[in-house]
Give the backbone structure.
Amino acid sequence: MDSGAPVSIGGYEERIVPTVDGLTIYARDYPPLLPETGLPVICLHGLTRNSRDFEVVAPRIAALGRRVIAADMRGRGKSANDADPAHYVPAVYAQDVLALMDKLQIPKAVFIGTSMGGLITMVIAALAPDRVAGSVLNDVGPQLNMAGLSRIAGYVGHVQPVGSWAEAAEAIKATNGAAFPERADDTQFWLAFARRTFRTRDDGQLELDYDPLIALAFADFDQNAPAPDLTPIFGALAQKPMLSVRGAISDLFDEAVVRKMRELKPDLATIAVANIGHAPMLDEPEAWDAVLSFLAKVD
């Protein structure tokens, strides 16, 4: 099935489109509440996540009069796994997103990228700057902290199945609890988190909703090596309107990097979400207000 045969679900249509190498990519396509008020918004998730991360903010943005595309990167959610795990890298994901934009006839968009999604956005801007109108970088920048990368390297790829949603909620809390300390006892929050990140297998067991081979990106990870520096490809994105959202207690993206970003882009808009680590959901009141304000300024 391609973009010419969407499947309508409550609030959005499901799109399945081929990429340049023939692998299929899935996206949720939220139509704008008319009249349209601006360019479409493309939402890109983090390393082990999927389009369901945006199930709260995507319809809110659509209600503002903007079409919203929330995609599953290859190897995640309803997108196909890649037979060659060497393709699980931002450069390939960026090509996938550009192919998706072509299929959905979106020449230009505002991007919201969480963590890995922000890195993909940087690559897209470097490859095709005219396709990017502006960006919201959620807890990510051109430099990342090794402490956060080391934590991610320690859990990515471990997709041990569990038998119930309660167990799935406990598992996701064990991995992400430090990022949401005020939600420690919020059972419903962790159940909702689990439903965004786990899938039901044919045997009824639940497992994380991604190809464990995405972990090969960390196969040569060295916590003693210098942190990767993507400043050379940040320049193209810095020419566009940008909002930086940071979890105030994030172990991956800190205030020092925000200051460096502002040196490169003096008009950078910023918000730090109190008592949140990596990464804000973007529905936190201060984060959502910042996104609203930013979108109001980007056609």
In short: The mean pLDDT is 94. Residues 7-149+227-296 form a domain with the Rossmann fold fold (CATH 3.40.50.1820). Residues 44 and 117 are 4 Å apart (CA to CA).
